[in-house]
């Protein structure tokens, strides 16, 4: 150890690897993911397909992207000790805002993107302020906001509305080399969040507030601001997912968020990735693993042509089993 | 360097500190001693900015300071290391040390700088068994203290307050702490050392300030005192408080008996509790007092040894065997804060399906005044809350009642009432065990005193033993 | 009781407001129809109350209602003889789902939010897996009587609701209710007083499952068989309970207030309809009111404590 002390500062490369492996809560989900990939490979082989084919991998990424982006945002609020149930309706709302402002024309794209992000940031601000200032439990606060958005949607829309220009649809369908643009977008959001959590003061404080609000306060952290910031970032992630889905659909849809079950499913992906629901422990790496796990599972089911209801059952079982295992690991340690 | 003058503080109209002066110079270890309730913790919390004093001034380096928030005290160079550590277990050592003040370069937290600075701090503290990147959760309590101290140093603290720092430590770890304290003073940092353990105080302190009943008795060079003199200064008071008379006759039959009781915290416990007798349990913090009560009760059961009645393996078995426990931490383990007095008092009876006495009779029995069963318990004073906790146990008429610090945070009047009740219960044939770190109370109440040390029975003293005798047995090593 | 009072005042106010617009509302037929419509949600709120007051969540009740209705339709398939055995089976199924929720939460220590979220996924998947994607079969006429029929002038569902309410209030007055609240208020203190915390919480989940079964019986009769019948009911039930002044996290609030919260929600919908506010805006108004109600509760609490301390 003395030796090591003399060697400081440590080269950045070594630090990165250590950092990733030190993110212990994420490890089990990657072990499970690896096992599932092997299983998937076997299933596809026996079934006469190729699991690791580019097509299938791209498919997996494609399916994961929207959920992945939302889940990254959800990770931030959960780490801060909060929760966001409003993301699904917010996704629908931003998809509509995007498509309506674009109205099929290329010139509307920048304004529409800015508007969608602004709407989502505002929603996050409202969520955060209700949780911190009015001291309403995050469950109720974000559920209430979700209902408000739903009311606005129901009042104005019966079905898909607006349309996005072809240029904007590249976001949803194009590839750069083998990689879909949507997957790259997800990767960028995840990397950004990872950087935020591991390299910025705000990230450090998110962990501190979620870990122990009182300790954070005694160390001079302004805890309320941190929670509000986490909510804003989470909602912006939902807004980005809304943009992506609008680009895929070519229009905005009032049910696109709820049909995808993004609220509860993003929370499921986060906790599958080893992030504690109570906050303060976990990270983006685990969430990415959790989302990929769900996507690989989907892909295996598709190959086996299992219907979607069986998928739900298996997901439920995996979710509960994973959490039971985490609880056990924490106790025996 | 530090001068506190005429510090006074009252809580809810009860004066806990009055006119206390304290002067500390750079590079000294200044011990603050006194019995429980003497005002040590309050004084230290005022220094750390947790409480604001009602009167008096604080000067650091001749400049008058006022702290509205702990962070302001930190900035002024005062760091406090609490008994409960204020670290985030899921974060690394470096992240904890720099929490709230992370160094930033080009918008990013400069991990390398943070970790190398933490490494330097640890090295300067002679700590080589862990590094800046280890998770705090994986460190022992002693090492976590080192992290706290490193955090204090990173704040450029010039006054470090340690509140009972050795309480959670094993013996070999205490030596490490000594080394650490000496390293701090070698840098010119003043250490304010609060402890019950007299040996440590004579090992470490340059000067000693003795507090009693919220006032300063004296400040003296450590070399001018010995243990006996110090104990006399701490406890030397007229035994003016009233304690109910002891039982006249000899105690009755043995109701509870343990032979060789042990678990992870206790070893080879032999103990008999007799009807009509109050047995006091003394011991330093961490000596296993609370653990003993919880083992007898079944909450943290004995895993070895014989016990009559049958060794309880759970709380319900303990209750079924006629044992009750008035817990030490009333707020966390004793009361249901949002429920009414009635629901608190009837909880044990309801949980175990025992037949219920009338609530009015019960509250009258514990002399709750005013006896309002519909009031929410959190609105009551500490003393009245404790009476309700007592009522909770009386409702199932146990044969053995274990009291863990029964009068902590209880005002004088209620304290006397609780003492009377305990004696009354014993007179009615109950076996009573009482843990207290307040020696006058323990000596005033007990028919005999069992002294614990490091999870074992260190010895037993008869009624009316001196505080010195108890202290010596508890602190010897 | 003091804490529960505001919700009754609000409820009374809403009922009066409805009566002003629709003078017939307070006459027995119209009022009974209102109660009948509210019954399933009130019953669900009562069940959810037991779970919430013990310090947990039950997100699975909505999908449990759907599952129960779909199962009943397939098993009964229009046959009168099958009605009563299937009703018994529904009750048993609700209890078993609650038992599993409780055991996973207390023994395996999975946060109840996740346990019941998993159960939600499992139930909604499994039941359609079994029926092949959409509800099949039909409920018998006898079954549907419970939801839509009446005994003399009083609908069956109102009678069932009255029985459920009475049972819930009795349970909360009994030793069980007190130990349940104790577990939710301070589980360590409760355990050290001999409360079997894991057991009472598990029973609370079973009660919630049972209430979902009863609500499903009424909804099946009232609204018929559909895949959407239980959708969103878990959130409505939790909302109703919180609206009644019951604290998330446990230990505070009464079951009567929780049920009043459900009535209030239903009265609110009725009122919005009467005033011609479109059904679409309903959720928005609901959302604002919930946040406001809880925020007011949260602000009041510390003030009460400060007053007590001085």
TrEMBL record, chain A:
One of its GO terms (molecular function) is transmembrane transporter activity. It is a multi-pass membrane protein. It is found in: Cell membrane. GO terms for cellular component: plasma membrane. InterPro entries: ABC_transp_permease. The chain crosses the membrane at residues 29-53, 65-91, 111-131, 138-157, 177-197, 226-247, 267-297. Keywords: Cell membrane, Membrane, Transmembrane, Transmembrane helix. PANTHER family: ABC TRANSPORTER PERMEASE PROTEIN YPHD-RELATED-RELATED (PTHR32196). This is ABC transporter permease. It comes from Microbispora catharanthi.
From TrEMBL, chain B:
GO terms for molecular function: ATP binding; ATP hydrolysis activity. Its main location: membrane. SMART domains: AAA. Residues 2-238, 249-477 form the ABC transporter domain. It is found in: Cell membrane. It holds the Pfam family ABC_tran. Gene3D superfamilies: P-loop containing nucleotide triphosphate hydrolases. It comes from the Bacteria. InterPro entries: AAA+_ATPase, ABC_carbohydrate_import_ATPase, ABC_transporter-like_ATP-bd, ABC_transporter-like_CS, P-loop_NTPase. Keywords: ATP-binding, Cell membrane, Membrane, Nucleotide-binding, Repeat, Translocase, Transport. One of its GO terms (cellular component) is plasma membrane. It is a peripheral membrane protein. The keyword ATP-binding applies. The keyword Iron-sulfur does not apply. This is ATP-binding cassette domain-containing protein. It comes from Microbispora catharanthi.
TrEMBL record, chain C:
The keyword Cell membrane applies. One of its GO terms (cellular component) is plasma membrane. One of its GO terms (molecular function) is transmembrane transporter activity. The keyword Transport applies. It is found in: Cell membrane. It comes from the Bacteria. This is Autoinducer 2 import system permease protein LsrD. It comes from Microbispora catharanthi. The lineage of its organism: Bacteria, Bacillati, Actinomycetota, Actinomycetes, Streptosporangiales.
């Amino acid at each position: 150890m003395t030796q090591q002390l003399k060697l400081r500062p440590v080269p950045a490369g070594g630090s990165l690897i250590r950092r990733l492996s030190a993110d212990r809560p994420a490890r089990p989900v990657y072990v499970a993911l690896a096992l599932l990939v092997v299983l998937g490979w076997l299933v596809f082989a026996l079934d006469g397909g190729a699991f690791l084919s580019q097509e299938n991998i791209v498919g997996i990424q494609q399916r994961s992207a929207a959920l992945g982006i939302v889940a990254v945002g959800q990770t931030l609020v959960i780490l801060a000790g909060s929760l966001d149930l409003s993301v699904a309706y917010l996704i629908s709302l931003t998809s509509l805002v995007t498509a309506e402002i674009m109205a099929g024309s290329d010139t509307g794209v920048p304004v529409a993107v800015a508007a969608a992000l602004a709407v989502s940031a505002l929603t996050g601000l409202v969520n955060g302020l209700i949780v911190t200032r009015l001291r309403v439990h995050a469950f109720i606060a974000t559920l209430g906001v979700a209902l408000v958005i739903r009311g606005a949607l129901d009042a104005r829309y019966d079905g898909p509305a607006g349309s996005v220009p072809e240029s904007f649809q590249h976001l949803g369908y194009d590839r750069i080399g083998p990689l879909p643009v949507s997957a790259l977008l997800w990767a960028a959001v995840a990397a950004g969040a990872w950087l935020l959590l591991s390299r910025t003061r705000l990230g450090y404080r998110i962990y501190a507030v979620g870990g122990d609000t009182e300790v954070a306060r005694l160390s001079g952290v302004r805890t309320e601001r941190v929670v509000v910031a986490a909510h804003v970032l989470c909602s912006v992630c939902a807004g980005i997912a809304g943009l992506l889905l609008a680009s895929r659909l070519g229009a905005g849809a009032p049910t696109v968020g709820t049909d995808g079950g993004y609220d509860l499913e993003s929370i499921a992906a986060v906790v599958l990735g080893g992030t504690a629901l109570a906050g303060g422990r976990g990270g983006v790496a685990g969430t990415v693993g959790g989302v990929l796990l769900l996507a690989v599972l989907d892909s295996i089911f598709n190959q086996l042509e299992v219907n979607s209801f069986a998928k739900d059952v298996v997901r439920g079982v995996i979710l509960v089993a994973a959490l039971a295992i985490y609880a056990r690991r924490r106790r025996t340690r | 360097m530090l001068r506190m003058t005429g510090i006074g503080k009252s809580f809810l109209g009860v004066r806990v500190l009055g006119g206390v002066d304290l002067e500390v110079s750079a590079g000294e270890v200044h011990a603050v001693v006194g019995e429980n309730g003497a005002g040590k913790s309050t004084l230290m919390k005022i220094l750390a900015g947790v409480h604001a004093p009602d009167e008096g001034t604080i000067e650091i380096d001749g400049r008058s300071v006022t702290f509205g928030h702990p962070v302001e005290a930190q900035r002024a160079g005062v760091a406090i290391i609490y008994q409960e550590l204020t670290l985030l277990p899921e974060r690394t050592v470096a992240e904890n040390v720099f929490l709230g003040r992370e160094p930033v370069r080009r918008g990013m937290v400069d991990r390398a700088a943070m970790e190398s600075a933490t490494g330097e701090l640890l090295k300067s503290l002679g700590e080589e068994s862990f590094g800046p990147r280890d998770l705090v959760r994986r460190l022992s309590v002693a090492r976590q203290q080192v992290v706290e101290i490193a955090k204090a140093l990173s704040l450029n603290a010039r006054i470090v307050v340690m509140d009972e720092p050795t309480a959670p430590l094993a013996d070999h770890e205490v030596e490490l702490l000594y080394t650490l304290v000496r390293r701090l003073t070698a840098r010119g940092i003043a250490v304010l050392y609060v402890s019950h353990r007299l040996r440590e105080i004579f090992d470490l302190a340059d000067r000693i300030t003795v507090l009693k009943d919220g006032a300063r008795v004296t400040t003296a060079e450590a070399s001018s005192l010995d243990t006996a003199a110090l104990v006399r200064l701490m406890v030397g008071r007229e035994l003016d408080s009233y304690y109910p008379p002891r039982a006249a006759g000899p105690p009755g039959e043995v109701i509870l008996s343990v032979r060789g009781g042990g678990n992870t915290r206790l070893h080879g416990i032999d103990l008999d509790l007799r009807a009509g007798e109050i047995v006091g349990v003394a011991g330093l913090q961490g000596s296993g007092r609370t653990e003993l009560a919880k083992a007898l009760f079944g909450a943290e059961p004995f895993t070895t040894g014989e016990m009559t009645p049958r060794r309880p393996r759970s709380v319900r078995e303990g209750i079924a065997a006629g044992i009750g426990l008035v817990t030490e931490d009333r707020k966390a383990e004793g009361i249901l804060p949002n429920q009414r007095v009635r629901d608190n008092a009837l909880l044990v009876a309801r949980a175990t399906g025992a037949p219920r006495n009338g609530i009015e009779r019960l509250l009258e029995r514990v002399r709750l005044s005013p006896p309002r069963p519909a009031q929410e318990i959190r609105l009551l004073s500490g003393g009245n809350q404790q009476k309700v906790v007592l009522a909770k146990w009386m409702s199932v008429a146990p044969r053995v009642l274990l009291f863990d610090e029964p009068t902590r945070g209880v005002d004088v009047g209620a304290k006397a009432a609780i003492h009377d009740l305990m004696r009354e219960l014993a007179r009615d044939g109950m076996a009573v065990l009482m843990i207290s770190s307040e020696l006058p109370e323990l000596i005033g109440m007990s028919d005999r005193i069992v002294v614990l040390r490091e999870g074992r029975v260190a010895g037993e003293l008869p009624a009316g033993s001196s505080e010195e005798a108890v202290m010596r047995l508890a602190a010897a090593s | 009781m003091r804490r529960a009072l505001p919700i009754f005042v609000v409820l009374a106010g809403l009922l009066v407001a409805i009566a002003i617009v629709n003078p017939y509302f307070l006459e027995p037929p119209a009022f009974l129809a209102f109660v009948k419509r509210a019954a399933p949600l009130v019953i669900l709120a009562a069940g959810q109350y037991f779970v919430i007051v013990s310090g947990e969540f039950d997100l699975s009740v909505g999908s449990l209602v759907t599952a129960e209705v779909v199962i009943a339709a397939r098993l009964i398939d229009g046959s009168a003889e099958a009605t009563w055995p299937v009703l018994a089976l529904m009750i048993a199924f609700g209890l078993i789902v609650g038992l599993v929720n409780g055991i996973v939460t207390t023994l395996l220590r999975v946060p109840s939010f996740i346990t019941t979220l998993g159960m939600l996924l499992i139930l909604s998947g499994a039941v359609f897996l079994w029926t092949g994607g959409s509800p099949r079969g039909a409920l018998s006429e006898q079954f549907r009587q419970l939801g839509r029929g009446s005994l003399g002038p009083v609908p069956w569902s109102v009678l069932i609701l009255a029985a459920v309410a009475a049972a819930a209030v009795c349970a909360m007055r009994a030793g069980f209710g007190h130990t349940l609240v104790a577990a939710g208020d301070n589980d360590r203190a409760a355990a050290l007083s001999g409360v079997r915390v894991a057991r009472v919480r598990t029973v609370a989940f079973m009660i919630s499952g049972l209430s979902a079964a009863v609500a499903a019986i009424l909804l099946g009769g009232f609204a018929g068989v559909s895949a959407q019948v239980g959708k969103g009911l878990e959130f409505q039930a939790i909302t109703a309970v919180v609206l009644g002044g019951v604290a998330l996290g446990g230990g505070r609030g009464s079951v009567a207030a929780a049920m009043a919260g459900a009535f209030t929600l239903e009265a609110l919908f009725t009122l919005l309809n009467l005033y011609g506010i479109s059904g679409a805006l309903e959720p928005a108004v609901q959302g604002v009111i919930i946040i406001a109600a809880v925020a007011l509760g949260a602000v009041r609490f510390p003030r009460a404590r400060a007053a007590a301390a001085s």
